[in-house]
Amino acid sequence: VVPRDAAPFPPRLAAALLSANIALIDALHRVRFGDVVRGEAPKKEPSKEAQEASKACLLIDQVRLCGNVLYSNPQAQAFARLTTGLKALLSHCYSDPEVPMLREVGVFAVRNATVGCRENQQAVADLLAERKAAAAAAGPGAGLQPPLMAEFGLEV
């Protein structure tokens, strides 16, 4: 956890941390639930190996680190928006009994990515609208979907 009075992350360090962490959490999500972008059917349950990989790679800590880097850091927030960062963070805002606290740190990271940044708030709203439309088109029971941010009382 970064103290409130601490100096912001140097831009190059923030970019390196976000690049690596976003790539890792995105890869872990694809291993756990399938690569829907490439046409794989979404998995309803992650495999035992995927669950172990998430624990071994400290998934919660990786998402938490992204949230800490994004807090009050406009350059990092823009980086997350211009890459796949926001989408990767949103994909971790769900409950998973195998990875306790994942939803909470995911919501925290998305909150830090959007606080004080209208562009990210709009980007998150657009991503959530796409997800909602895709879920409606797929019908009930069409794979795991993260909850809408409004369920957490966050405004986007």
Itemize the secondary structure elements and their pairings:
Layout (H helix, E strand, L loop, with lengths): L10 H23 L14 H9 L2 H12 L3 H9 L2 H6 L11 H13 L3 H21 L18
Helix pairs in contact: 1-3, 1-4, 3-6
Structure characterization notes:
The chain is mainly alpha-helical. The protein is built from 7 helices and no strands. Helix 3 (59-70) packs parallel to helix 6 (102-114). The longest helix has 23 residues, at 11-33. The chain is globular, with a radius of gyration of 15 Å. The model is unreliable at 143-156 (pLDDT under 50).
Which regions contain 5 or more consecutive residues with pLDDT less than 50? 143-156
What is the share of helical residues?
A: 55-70%
- Annotation field: number of helices: 7
Order of helices and strands: HHHHHHH
Proportion of residues in β-strands: under 5%
Biggest sheet architecture: none
What labels would you give this structure?
156 residues, mainly alpha
What's the short version?
This protein has 156 residues and is mainly α.
